[in-house]
Design brief:
alpha+beta
Length: about 375
Amino acid sequence: MAYLTGTQIGALSDALGTAYNLSRFDRLLLGRLNKVREDISLAGDYEGIRYDVIDLANREGWVTDLLTVARASNPGNSGLLAFEESLGLGAIAAPQKSGLEKIVRERSHFQDPSSFRERLGLLESWMCAIEIPGGGGTGVLVGPDIVLTNYHVIVPLLKGNVSPSDVHSRFDYRVTDGGGVVNGGLPVGFANDWDVRHSPYSQADTVADGQGWTTEELDFALVRLASSPGEAPIGDRPEAQAPNRGWLHLPAGPAAMTQGDVLFVLQHPQDLDALPTAKLQRLKLSSGTVLGFVGNGLRMRHDATTLPGSSGSPCFNADLEPVALHHAGEKNSRLDYKGAYNQAIPLGEIARDLMKHDLGSLLDAIGPAG
């Protein structure tokens, strides 16, 4: 549980003031926290009201809940995201400026921290954990009701070992650094006609130094959900007047990535210390670099950290643009989850597969929202 200092109370008040006007703030308190603002504060100005609410939340121990629901209802607000990260509750802190005084790498460039935070906030709202008996992984919303993940994550469904009613995509799951659940998330089931398109993995992915990948072996699955979270308010609370969630723009062409480029992986990894019985973990962001390409460009290798549960995680470049779908690591005999590389499927290859199978319109439909 976070306990704020006076300076932090002021910072949170300023962030809430940029994210909500008074009427929306009142609806947020009532719709998401079941608290009537007039029972807390009758201050004559909005700033005084915010201070009173935050002060009470701080003293009664629900300030983390207040921040969580505020972020969930306005994920693109950079002020709220920055404040959340300052408490250690966010997926990652904004990148800091480098101390280097020379241009060492031409493809390295400056980032605007505010834009980076806003983009990251939107990406968080599109991510989900795939919950499936005996396994699971990560997914990302790429259409109003369509999630992209790995083929091998949903193999139990394809084999008929589980039914669609046994599987969920859980959005908005949030916990504190101490493991306390502050938002159990929004579980969305799979539709009966869930299989939009899938492509299996290759045997080359299952052995050390494999080779012989084909364009029909891309280890991805597009699954249809039973409802359309992309067209519903974030948090599924209309009374809070949250914006619609939207979805990720899946690129229709290959990204210009090369060896040494920065790579981010947004994922729901399991707790290494709790394996193999680990429960769902909070959303994490790891960073690394592109190590190179193999299989005539059908696989991209990287060194960003992943763990079981990370399968199906989208990979992003330095501008947080989607470039690949993480799916595997080096195959070796080690039991400590350490290896020389991780591996991903370039999204340009997945886009080509969709167009080849008459699903190019799906790319067009996905495009405008991201």
